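Q&A log
Question type: sequence-to-structure
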Amino acid sequence: MTQSIVRVHLAFPCPFPAFSHWLTLEELRTFERITAPQRRHDWLAGRRAAKELIRCYLLETVGLELPPSQIRILNDAHGAPYADLPSWPPSLKGRGSSPPRVGEGLGERFCISIAHSAGHGLAGLAPHGSIGVDLQRIRPVRSDLAERVLTDHERTQFVHYFVKRESEGLLVFWALKEAAIKAQRTRPAPALREIAVRLTEPGHAEISLRTQRLKAQWGQWGEFIWAWAFF
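Response status: OK
Response body:
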């Protein structure tokens, strides 16, 4: 689930007491405001995936081992996540990465996206460009989902690639389109049938969304379909 310009990380469910030290005080307050147990599990899994991914990326690229509690995951005006990190340490300038701009924080050097499903979290990171990720637990889907998701051309691909795997196939197209919407990071979001997906080689796709052309990958991990889209 990695690629040269895109990195993704899948997090397993984790009980809150074992994970609370990873959160900032602001994130702890946010968590306490979430009352539904499933939403709590999902929120924690998404944050865990994002922080693990960011920590690995910073360690690999600039040699910085940053504690999770110093990584704040916030949301912009459109609801898209971004990382608020400490300013670039002077001692790291020039180590394994291009020199930072004056006043630049570490979090300004990459784009992140978060998804969660059934207590599992998925995060994506792209050093350049914009990324979106989605995660769907494989399950029976409503009979009208194909009408809401698939274009006529996509129906042809669906029939060809997903014989006797209708639920998985619909979730693949759905996840790819949701990932593309997240990558675009604008509102209002387009209807799913306004997004055109073309499956190419196995596990790869090209997506057209308004004026954007996105590269995408997808796959199955256990009982989940994962997808990312990037431009």
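Response note: The two ends are 17 Å apart (CA to CA).
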